[in-house]
């Protein structure tokens, strides 16, 4: 016997309905008659099969009709446990510095001028990597560089560090990749050439159109804007580097940070980026967190219009935290670690790395010494184990709030629900996701 997946979400359109299944992460457009029958209180799978044989088969293929014995929630929990404790990829995030060459008003990081990772920390990091990759626990390592601005002192810190880790991986037949969260204002021809060796991908942020950006993302020393340098860097990177080979993510995620004045004048930014290779550049729209309480009807309309404009130019767009995954946030896993420039150990890059967020330290031999109980508490948490998350049909692409927020709140609360990561209704969001996937499939 078959049953309907709990995670089917109907999205009504003009003349038809889109069915989204968050467990399989698939969409299907169906007639209104099919949608009505599928969503009726009493569902008879055999009668449905006779009435709609082709649709019935498609619904099965896409995980929207499943075997009656399947317990989807149990599978979610098992997938979560595997990702949390048995991930075959080590994700190591490194802060070469907590200093930055720019000054953006909303940045949560407390920049520490002149700080940088010394050889006394680089060597223990390499020792740590050599130790943890010496057995069969991990098949790959993914090295993220964050800060601060990780391209500061790139040739003396991030580059030799990445090269050293890559050399260890090659000696142990482990896969290697890197990820740079960078403002890209320091990107040079020399750095781009070195990047070719590192199997990288990037997150680069723009603060809207030129005038807006140049009032927000400015050089710390001169106060001048950085729009031109960053737009140029994105173009050169997309021309010179291939997509990396570790995931379906493109080479560059171009994050557009916006507040209530940004989206009104987005056309000039779109003109400056519309010639980018759409297979290498994805757009992520992210509201500046200090302005989340200011979302209103006008802002939702502007965001929807921004989606349409970018979509019509052929860009893939993301917004919010929803994607198919086994765990809410890398920090929830025991295979994720942050090593700061000073050798202190942390777990959340969404918070300033300081004494309050420190959870351990790395010694000269490359051993991690945990100095508080927060990591143990974090690993014991199942943040979606609450009534709100367990009944939510978006659970498989959300997996609950991150452990950092959960620990800070002392449990689940509406304020940390991931539904607040988007500024538009969920059905509108899913409707645009369906259109983007349909476009991409037809382009291929």
UniProtKB/TrEMBL annotation:
NCBIfam families, per database record: rSAM_more_4Fe4S (TIGR04085)
Protein name: Radical SAM protein
Family membership: Belongs to the radical SAM superfamily. Anaerobic sulfatase-maturating enzyme family.
Family matches, as CDD domains: Radical_SAM (cd01335)
Source domain of life: Bacteria
Cofactor(s) recorded in Swiss-Prot or TrEMBL: [4Fe-4S] cluster
Pfam entry (one): Radical_SAM
Upper classification of the organism: Bacteria, Pseudomonadati, Bacteroidota, Bacteroidia, Bacteroidales
Listed PROSITE patterns: RADICAL_SAM
Every Radical SAM core domain range: 86-328
Presence of the UniProt keyword Iron in the record: yes
Gene3D superfamilies: Aldolase class I (3.20.20.70)
InterPro entries referenced in this protein's UniProt entry, alphabetically: 4Fe4S-binding_SPASM_dom, Aldolase_TIM, rSAM, rSAM_sf, Sulphatase_maturase_rSAM
Keywords of the record: Iron, Iron-sulfur, Metal-binding, S-adenosyl-L-methionine
A GO MF label: metal ion binding
